[in-house]
Amino acid sequence: MPLIKMPPPHGGKLVERVVKKRDIAEKMIAGCPTYELKPTTLPDGTPIRHVYREIMSVCYGFFSPVEGSMVQNELERVLNERRLLSEWIFPYPILFDISEEDYKALDVKEGDRLVLMLKGQPFATLDIEEVYKIDPEDVATRTFGTPEKNPEVVREPFNEKHPGYMIYKMHNPVILAGKYTIVNEPKFKEPFDRFWFPPSKCREVIKNEKKWRTVIAHQTRNVPHVGHEMLMKCAAYTGDIEPCHGILVNAIIGAKRRGDYPDEAILEGHEAVNKYGYIKPERHMVTFTLWDMRYGNPIESLLHGVIRQNMGCTHHMFGRDHAAVGEYYDMYATQILWSKGIPSFGFEAPPNEVDYGLKIIPQNMAEFWYCPICQEIAYSESCGHTDAKQKFSGSFLRGMVAEGIMPPRVVMRPEVYKQIVKWWKVYNYPFVNRKYLDIKNKELEIDLPAMEVPKA
Amino acid sequence: MPHYIAVYLDDSRYEKIKGTPLEEKITYLFGGQLKSLVVEVPEDKSEKILKAFEKARIDSRGYIEDVPVAFRRALFEEIAKAKSLDVIDKVLERLDELVEAGKKEDEYIPPPEIE
């Protein structure tokens, strides 16, 4: 068996569209029209997406080879076949949407450069290649699929209760397509700053500091309980002639659904796993990607494959109900995609076995539970005492946390629980609620240095 | 089919039922590290609970979850008072009050006092 090595970035080359030199950036934006970025909101005003997060993930290469807001032909290709115009697979529409009123007021056209402002400062540019209109509801429906068109995995029609569906449904109808470039590099606030490893940096750390040859990625939007910890430990036994050298936790940071944990607690909770030795830091590293989670199960898993391959991972673990909410998809939809493909979504074979596909190797995992007979955390495919299982249910844990009862060590590590309480004290609430979403939307994860837009 | 609600017992709750017949009904989970009392809820009553609390749901184990903290606390209060697990009717008598308390929990839940 040949030894596995770090795969190339998806598309062959990492996208890096960040101008670091102030004089060059100022020349780029001089005299250009400006537009202050706005959040996508639900009809009641709840913020559910901030496009700045997508711009960051594009420009720092997490979404390589995507370089900006998609042109109409590319959007159609992604919705129909999950492929970019360059043939490389990609799961989601990435769009810069504005309202009819804003479009009229801006008076921009193809060929113009628009300066995207954030918190009152220049942040990025959008070089407009095409302007077109979408029907947001149609985009939302086609993004996630329907039971009729995607019968292999879609079980229920998507509706207003699905956060990802609502993100696309609430998109504005006018799309400005073109490449993004960050012209004023943001500074991350604590605690985000110490977990910020964009793909080029992450690859360098994996190779030169950690010296990991094989790395398995762990997707998270959760504070880890011991079931997650066991998933990481056991999935990492894959590899080649030896288990994976490293476990890369990559948290999705952005607007989430109510009842999820605050982003800060997620990051510091995972950090506690290595800080307190449950998986030693020599083997475990916590990072994040900015993205307002779409909860798209198999579709989201494709994005996770893209992101983590770009970050330098060789393997990716996928559990049951991966990045899922509700019962819209089959609970094994992600595992179906990565084991045999989903033809109706454009995959006659798994995403790592098609042309222009991913190189990251999937590791589909079943479930972990506590077995009182084995007296240990058991793997569902090994343990023969199914009737006696004691499951790590997320809602069971949330109930315990909300009541202020410290979960037992075998369920959640006390040091991890303390991170929940730490951020609970900051936000007066242990979970994401409307107030948290409003605060996050206002403050974001970053600050921007002061910068002028020079006159032409 | 009945559903269930688990009431978790930390040390202070355990003290309140110690020495009563409830002690025999304690379920030990996770190698004895977690004590709980399991209250059986007939289907018609679990429907009432699900209707009253928007976020409440039945999880894959058949347990009613995501009910307000106020509901869980009331459930334990009634159990401790009656020294019995047959208290769901008593709790449902307080449903209006608990729905109101639950609404406030969207904004604030007091954090536990731990270092």
Provide a short characterization of the protein structure.
Chain A is 31% helix and 19% strand. Chain A starts with 21 loop residues before the first helix and ends in a 9-residue tail after the last strand. Chain A has 14 helices and 18 strands.
What attributes characterize this protein structure?
heterodimer, A: 456 residues, alpha/beta, Sulfate adenylyltransferase, Rossmann fold, 2 domains, 6-stranded mixed β-sheet, 5-stranded parallel β-sheet, B: 115 residues, alpha+beta, 3-stranded antiparallel β-sheet, two-stranded antiparallel ribbon, 5 helices, 5 strands, 19% strand
Describe this structure in words.
The complex is a heterodimer of chains A (456) and B (115). In chain A, 31% of the residues lie in helices and 19% in strands. Chain A contains 14 helices and 18 strands. The mean pLDDT of chain A is 96. Chain B has one domain (3-104). In chain B, 41% of the residues lie in helices and 19% in strands. Chain B has 5 helices and 5 strands; from the N terminus they run E-H-E-E-H-E-E-H-H-H. The longest helix of chain B is centred in the middle third of the chain and has 14 residues, at 69-82. Chain B is globular. The mean pLDDT of chain B is 92. The chains are: A alpha/beta (456), B alpha+beta (115). Chain A binds chain B through residues 258-259, 370, 372, 375, 390-391, 393, 395-396, 398-400, 402-411, 418, 421, 424-425, 428-430, 433-435, and chain B through 6, 8, 10, 29-31, 33-34, 55, 57, 59-61, 63, 65-67, 69, 72-73, 105-112, 114-115.
Please mark out the parts of chain A with pLDDT under 50 across 5 or more consecutive residues, or reply none.
none
Largest interface: A-B, 33 and 30 residues
Order of helices and strands of chain B: EHEEHEEHHH
CATH class wording of the largest domain in chain A? Alpha Beta
Count of helix runs of chain A: 14
Low-pLDDT segments of chain B: none
According to DSSP, the number of beta strands of chain A is: 18
Overall pLDDT confidence of chain A: 96
Helix proportion range of chain A: 25-40%
- End-to-end separation of chain A in angstroms reads 60 Å
Q: Share of helix among residues of chain B?
A: 40-55%
Oligomeric state as shown: heterodimer
User: Hey, roughly how much beta strand do the residues of chain B contain?
Assistant: 15-25%
Structural class of chain B: alpha+beta
* Structural class by SSE content of chain A: alpha/beta
Shape of chain B: globular
CATH superfamily membership of the largest domain in chain A: HUPs
Q: How large is the radius of gyration of chain B? A: 14 Å
Sheet bearing the most strands of chain A, described? 6 strands, mixed
